Amino acid sequence: MDAKVRHLVCKPGVSLQYTVMLSYQHSYHAVNHADVVKHVLLTEMLAAMLEAENADNRLIRYPGSTALFAAMLRDAARAVAAAYRRFAQGVYIIWYPLLPKARHEELFQELRRSGIRNILWTELDCCDCFPDMQMRGAGLITVNPPWHAQAGMHAALDWLCEHLTHGQGHPRFDWLVPE
User: Fold this and answer.
1) Residue among 101, 91, 93, 102 at smallest CA distance from 39
2) How many CA atoms, within 13 angstroms, populate the side-chain half-sphere of residue 41?
3) Domain 3-177 falls in which CATH fold?
4) CA 106 – CA 46 distance, rounded (Å)
């Protein structure tokens, strides 16, 4: 699977490194409920990191797409674990879809076994609000989430639940592995 690593300089000393999986067809998934969840939560996290006085928040790795998830689920967790061993203070984000086969559970198990602490689990299960879609929701796993981003992410998740699912969805804001 081909991947292209891109860098975005947000401001001096703060950059975003993300991986784009070339087999992922964003135009097909753009503006669906899972895409909205991903972008709103990422925006909250990036905004908080840009406002942070601590210049140590220099790197975000974002290995995530449905293609990566389906084909290389364990590899995503292993890649984050390997990057974490080199840079334990980094913020690492994995986006995942909620699909009928619940493959995201394998990701969770692999991350729990990795020994990494401080893993935030944010997710919106839209339940049956979008019956024509196989993807019933989406989530983000964040290693070392900035503490000052958490309140905004939690509020955004609740807002998304209310406005995307009219309160019928199930938001999750919890620790997969606490600090």
Assistant:
1) 93
2) 31
3) Rossmann fold (3.40.50)
4) 27
What pTM did the predictor assign? 0.72
**Which tokens is 76 given?**
């995503």
Query: How would you label 139-169 residue by residue, b for 16+ Cβ within 10 Å and e otherwise?
Result: bbbbbbbbebbbebbbebbeebbeebbeeeb
Could you give the angle at which helices 33-51 and 147-165 cross, rounded to 10 degrees? 160
Helix (H, G, I), strand (E, B) or coil at 94: strand
**What backbone phi and psi angles, to 5 degrees, belong to 86?**
-85, -30
Read off the amino acid at residue 47: A
- The DSSP result for 8-67, as a single string, is EEEETTEEEEEEEETT--HHHHTTSHHHHHHHHHHHHHHHHHHH-S-TT---EEEE--HH
SS3 93: strand
Give the pLDDT confidence of 18-61 residue by residue, as tens digits: 544 434 455 555 567 777 777 777 777 767 766 654 544 444 44
Q: How far is CA 132 from CA 24, 129, 135, 137, in A?
A: 20, 9, 9, 13
Q: What is the pLDDT of residues 67-93, one digit of tens each?
A: 444 455 567 888 889 889 999 998 898
